[in-house]
Every structure is written in structure tokens, then in C-alpha cells.
Amino acid sequence: MTPLLRIIDLHKSFGELVVLDGISLDVERGQKVSIIGPSGSGKTTLLRCINYLEKPTSGHIHIDGTLIGEKEVGGRFVHLSDRELAKERAGIGFVFQRFNLFPHLTALGNVTIAPQKVLGLSHDQAEARAREMLQKVGLGHKIDQYPERLSGGQQQRVAIARVLAMQPKLMLFDEATSALDPELIGEVLRVMRQLAEEGSTMVIVTHEIQFAGEVSDWVIFMDHGKIVEQGPPAQVLFDPQQPRTREFLKHIQDR
Amino acid sequence: MTFWQFLHAKGWYLLSTLIGGWPQTAIVALGSLVFALIFGLAVALLRLSPWRVLSWLAVAYIEFFRGTPALVQLFVIYFGMPDIGLSPTPLEAAIVGLGLNGAAYLAEIYRAGIESIHRGQLEAALSLGMTPLKAMQHIVLPQALRTMLPPITSFAIVLLKDTAIVFSVGVVEIMALARNLVTETLHSAAVYLIAGTIYLCMTIPMARLAARLERQRQAWH
Ligand SMILES: Nc1ncnc2c1ncn2[C@@H]1O[C@H](COP(=O)(O)OP(=O)(O)O)[C@@H](O)[C@H]1O
Ligand SMILES: [Mg+2]
User: Fold this and answer.
1) ipTM
2) Residue A203 and which of A8, A152, B100, B175 are 20 to 30 A apart at CA?
3) Could you write out the three-class secondary structure of chain B?
């Protein structure tokens, strides 16, 4: 069977700046892959390329065997139309570092809008699903609140519920807890851990080493746009082979 | 007759005659406002579109209509269109002329409003599977509207005042009637002052509305 996510020799530059320098990666269904690495190493850009918020300079991404953001026509790769691209993105959940909740909508509105406008669910269906998802992230009592009235941890959990309501095949987490006060990190990690246990396929960029060790099947250490080291968490996190990985882990534990 | 004697004797007659032009003024103002609101949004979206040619066309449009006098544009439409086989009525020419002109200003108001919304909002909407147009419609524009309402109201005030030039293509609105009255009575000051007062009665409430919207803009709810 093909892997759920296959990244083939991905390169991305912003002008002269090479940010991704040949990333290849397979993620199987139900697998949890954590990506660690210093700031500026290209982790966010990698996630953004996976759902085509960023156009790769070269290389290809397949999800479920389908090319992302482009298609092959007569042996040449052409970009997808807005509509085709949107359809692909609907199957990929993205949890942003800064939540990006819609401030003009309540928690419930944030979670119902995409199922209604993208999947075409009726108002009632979308609302039932949204309530279920908000319950799941422990916010059943906050559904009528606007984002500005919620704590950072609650906002991020609404953002996760918003993604879950789309029933994505794959979920991408970009430092989901980095913008949170320390005492709010736990509630978000708890939700993510629960999703992991339920068998979701997740790619998680994080600085929470202990969390990565507990939930991941595979850990990737990136630096300067390259995968420097990868393997099971026991190796990469607790017995790293590469000096740069060791240095990074030491640096992060000293914080 | 002095100014005051004249006003005393004929004031009511002047006022009631001029108010007779109000419906035409209102039709031109409203018609061109609706035209500009819709067309201006299209111009703004083109302006922001990733296709260079489209965005360049929108810029050219905006520059042209903001950089030439509205009166000239009106004349081109009313006196020039017959050359290409279209003969708009005075009312049509006025609405289209002021509408096209207004769209250029509104396009810039829309653009500023859209650009004031953090990029993360658009990206979140896209990542949920919305097309860029859906993201605009459901996520970006509803938020931008709050920022845009006060300048849009100010724009509507300017537009209303600008309708005072459409007598020049033959619309019988307040200014046209005022000019007739001046010819008839030879008392320009009184006539134009009353005409001005009628405009004020419309613009002052609008300005107060704009101020209130501006104050409400501060908080979300
Ligand atoms: N849109 C962009 N334009 C120019 N440079 C960018 C852009 N996005 C990211 N970069 C640069 O790419 C590099 C990698 O960024 P990023 O992927 O955010 O790294 P990380 O998430 O690992 O901290 C950084 O040097 C950043 O400044
Ligand atoms: Mg990052």
C-alpha cells in the first residue's frame, strides 16, 4: 500500500534563501511523526508546503497517492485550479502556532463554517458535528464564546476542533503550544495525545521533547532545510547519533 | 429687494421648488452608490488578484478615474457614448458616470480593508478547504467590513455632494432647479444658500452615522 503522505525531494527557496533542501519522507496511515529542529530550520515551511500554502520550488507531495497542488497532464506537471486545490486541502488539517481562529465567529461558528461551506453539510448536521468536536476537546461549555473571550489554550483547542470537524486524513501541527503560557500547554497536549491514541495520522512540529517521545512513532531532526537524523524516538531523542542533534537537544533542555 | 426681503417674500417658494429636485438627486446618489459598491468590489478583487495583468488593469482603472475630473468622465459618457451607438438618458449617464468614478475610490477602501485583515485569517480559511473567493466571502470581507464602514459612509457623503454636477448632462435635480430659479429671480445668493441647506440636511445625519460607526469599530462585540 502507498503511504498516506509521501514527500519526494522537496526543495523550497525564498529568492536566494534555501529553506528546504531536498526533503523526502513517508508517513503511513495512523503514524505519528514529530519534527524537531532549531528555529529557522524550515519546519513551518515544510508543513506549509504539504498543504500548498507555500508552493515548493521543486519536488512533489502525494497524499493517498494523489499529487498535491499539481497534476500530471501529458507528462507535464501543471498547477491545480483554486477549486481543485481547495478540495485537496479540505482533507488536510492544519493547526497553526497562532491559532488563527475567526474572531467574528463564536467557537461554534468557527467549527461549523467549513463543514457547511466546504463539505456542504446542512446547518443542523454541521452544528451537531461541531458540538461533538468541541465536547471532545473539552469545550462543550464554551461554544457560544467569541475567541477573544477564550484563553490561548482554549483557542487552540477550538482550532483543533475546527480541523477535526473536517474529518481530515492527515493533521499537521505547527508548534501548537509555542504561543501558550506554560500552564496552558498541558490541556492542548492532552487533546493531541488523545487524537494520537485514536489513530489519527499526525505530523507534529514541536519543541515539547517529552511529548514527542511519548506520542511519536518516528522523529525527524531538521537543520538548515535538511533531515539530519531520523528514527524512532528512543534513538533520535534519547540516543542521538549526530552531533548536531545532540547539541540541539542539550540546548533545548537547558532552557 | 434686499437679500432678506427677497428671502422673506420668496423663501418658501424657493424651498419647495428646490425640494422638487430631491428625488432625482436621491436616485442618482443611491444608484451610483450601489453601482460603485458592487463594481468597486470587483475592481478591488482584481487589484489583489495574483494575475499581474488583471491587477495592472485594475490599477490603471483606479488611476484613470481618480486622476481625471468627474465632470470630464460624465461628459465622455453622455456626449461620447452616442458615437459608439449608445445613447444613455441623462439619468443613466449620471448613475454610470458617478458609479464608475466612485468604484475607483471604493476599490481602494475595500483594498485597505482587506489588507488590514491578518494573512493568517485567509490561510486558515484556505487550509480548511475554502477557495480564495469563499475565504473572502465568509472570512475576510465580514471582518474587513467593520474597518470599511466608516470610510464607506464618508464616501457616500462625497458622492451625494458630487451629484451636484449631473445637471450638466441634463438631470433635473436640485442644482438644475436652482440654476433655473436664479435665471428666473436673479437672486443667486438666496437660491444657492437654500440649495446648500438641503444638501446639508442630508449630509449631517450621514456624517453622524459615520462617527458612530467609527466609535463602534473599537470592540468586536
Ligand atoms: N514567506 C517567506 N519569505 C521569505 N523568507 C521566509 C518566508 N517564510 C519563511 N522564511 C524563512 O525561511 C526560513 C525557515 O523558516 P521556517 O520554515 O519558519 O522555520 P522554522 O519553522 O523551522 O522556524 C527562515 O529563515 C525564515 O525567515
Ligand atoms: Mg516555525
Assistant:
1) 0.95
2) A152
3) CCHHHHHHHHHHHHHHHHHCCHHHHHHHHHHHHHHHHHHHHHHHHHHHCCCHHHHHHHHHHHHHHHHCCHHHHHHHHHHHHHHHCCCCCHHHHHHHHHHHHHHHHHHHHHHHHHHCCCHHHHHHHHHCCCCHHHHHHHHHHHHHHHHHHHHHHHHHHHHHHHHHHHHHHCCCCHHHHHHHHHHHHCCHHHHHHHHHHHHHHHHHHHHHHHHHHHHHCCCCC
